[in-house]
Design a protein that fits this description.
This protein is an alpha+beta fold. The protein has helices spanning 48-66, 112-119, 128-131, 140-150, 154-159, 168-177, 184-187, 202-208, 244-251, 310-318, 329-334, 373-399, 416-426, 438-451, 457-461, 476-491; strands spanning 4-10, 14-20, 26-33, 45-46, 77-84, 90-93, 103-104, 163-166, 181-183, 193-194, 199-200, 217-219, 222-227, 237-243, 260-264, 268-275, 286-291, 299-306, 343-345, 363-365, 406-409, 430-433, 466-470. Helix 9 (244-251) crosses helix 14, helix 10 (310-318) runs antiparallel to helix 12 and helix 12 (373-399) crosses helix 13. The radius of gyration is 22 Å and the shape is globular.
């Protein structure tokens, strides 16, 4: 009898394999971090081969942890689902499997000149009607163009059909199964897919000068892509593929129009289910694919993307040495009663939603001699809550739906100070589910549906259980004053890079 579904969660800082049982509980987890490569200011890269090696390790590690009696466990795994850091771009040789260049990470800003040149010919929103996206360094398409234009011989190889492109989902599925595929959610982040036809768009490919031969086949988020070719999961079908934020939407069982979730990870991403309708944004949000299950109609979402949230805490740890581990930031922030009058706007990669200003850079404002490291830690946490409110306001403006509660997940949701401050700043309850690994869970659900491990979305809803709820406690005047200070601080980061 099959007992588990495996999810590979390939994130910005680490790769994990998690085995889930039928109730959606974590049976085992194995995780490994990978190197962050910063060749120049604003450039962020990963080594795709390191990530593939780590993926194989964590798959074996997760299997080993449930295989305590040394008996084979593979027969107990029904399917494998993939979820991934989106927009992170890999181009590799079709024959050798060797990447032409390091993976260019979603946070990377090197394509600003490409995006600015395209915007001069029709504005930042010239491609929104088809792609749901503004012209920004965030997305895969300009990154592909940069690789083809910059790496010697790359363009000729691409036009000869010798190169393949993929976001991290495609890279892993190709290495696992040999299939060159992606799903609609990942394809919708390339700036190359028409979100209405769900196919690669000839006009977009022409504008970015990208040969169609390098692109993967676009599939649904839940269907058979192929079987694992080697290792402990050999012959197990890979049947689920969702970009990480869409996977969290699915894992939080936000299946109804108007349901929303916010994931607190390296960045912060809020998604609102808009049903079978692609809702255009006038407030700086992205219109994106939510998921597509088998032959069912695609479900769309509005998304607010924030580049730097958890990454800011890592920065306090790794660059400043303010804390020894990320978990210490809460105690340091609790050592003070408030932010001491400072705001920390972490525009390290420019500003994402709702501003889309790649020329912005980070700033700490309101500094006095009174301020010490406790205030800095608190301001860093508060920045996540303020940025989330900006996105929520944009979401309400676009959708006409007033959110009554916010479902949350991701690594930062165990920070009590942050979650309470989030509820206070939003003035709505903030709810954490019992299983907070909703990104991996969403990928597992998609794969499990493809093989009949779960029968339908109704069965998945029964797995969702509330773990904790934070209710707003802040008075309206304080909330207004603090948020007004944040909005002023954000303007100080604009147009820093000329």
């Amino acid at each position: 009898m099959t007992t588990y579904v495996a999810a590979i969660d390939q994130g910005t800082t680490s790769t994990r394999c998690i085995l889930f049982d039928h109730a959606g509980n974590v049976a085992s987890v194995s995780q490994k971090e990978h190197q962050q490569i910063y060749p120049k200011p604003g450039w962020v890269e990963h080594d795709p081969l390191e990530i593939w090696r780590n993926t194989q390790e964590v798959m074996e590690g997760a299997l080993g942890k449930v295989n305590s009696d040394q008996s084979p466990v593979v027969g107990e795994v029904a399917a494998v689902g993939i979820t991934n850091q989106r927009e992170t771009t890999v181009v590799w040789d079709r024959q050798t499997g060797q990447p032409l260049y390091n993976a260019i990470v979603w946070q990377d800003t090197r394509t600003d000149e490409i995006c600015n040149a395209l915007a001069r010919q029709g504005g930042q929103d010239r491609l929104r009607a088809k792609t749901g996206l503004p012209l920004a360094t965030y997305f895969s398409g300009p990154k592909i163009k940069w690789i083809l234009d910059t790496v010697p011989g790359a363009r000729q190889k691409a036009e000869n059909g010798d190169l393949l492109f993929g976001n991290m989902d495609t890279w892993l599925i190709w290495n696992l199964t040999g299939a060159h595929v992606t799903d609609v959610t990942n394809a919708s982040r390339t700036m190359l897919m028409n979100i209405h036809t769900l196919d690669w768009d000839a006009e977009m490919l022409g504008i970015l000068d990208i040969p169609p031969a390098i692109l993967p086949k676009i599939k649904s988020s839940s269907e058979m892509y192929g079987a694992v070719r080697s290792g402990g999961l050999k012959d197990i079908p890979v049947g689920g593929d969702l970009g990480d934020q869409q996977a969290a939407l699915f894992g939080q069982t936000c299946f109804s129009v108007g349901e929303a979730k916010n994931t607190y990870g390296t960045g912060c991403f809020m998604l609102l289910n808009t049903g079978e309708k692609a809702v255009p944004s006038t407030s700086g949000l992205l219109t994106t694919l939510g998921y597509k299950i088998g032959n069912q109609k695609a479900v769309y979402a509005l998304e607010g993307s924030i580049a730097i949230t958890g990454a800011l805490i890592q920065w306090l740890r790794d660059n400043l040495g303010l804390i020894q581990s990320s978990a210490e930031v809460e105690a340091l922030a609790k050592s003070v009663e408030d932010n001491g009058g400072i705001y920390f706007v972490p525009a390290f990669s420019g500003l994402f939603a709702p501003y889309w200003k790649s020329s912005a850079r980070g700033a700490i404002v309101g500094m006095t001699r009174y301020v010490h490291k406790g205030h800095l830690a608190r301001a860093a946490l508060e920045a996540t809550a303020y940025q989330t409110r900006e996105v929520l306001e944009a979401m309400e403006a676009d959708s006409g739906v007033k959110l009554t509660a916010l479902k949350v997940d991701g690594g930062m949701v165990f920070n009590e100070l942050l979650m309470q401050f989030q509820a206070d700043v939003l003035d709505v309850p903030v709810i954490r589910p019992k299983v907070a690994e909703t990104t991996a869970l969403g990928a597992a659900y998609a794969a499990g549906l493809a093989v009949g491990f779960w029968k339908d979305e109704g069965e998945l809803r029964l797995n969702w259980v509330k773990d904790k709820e934070w209710l707003p406690k802040m008075d309206a005047d304080t909330r207004k004053k603090l948020y007004s200070g944040w909005k002023k601080a954000v303007t100080r980061t604009f147009d820093w890079v000329e």
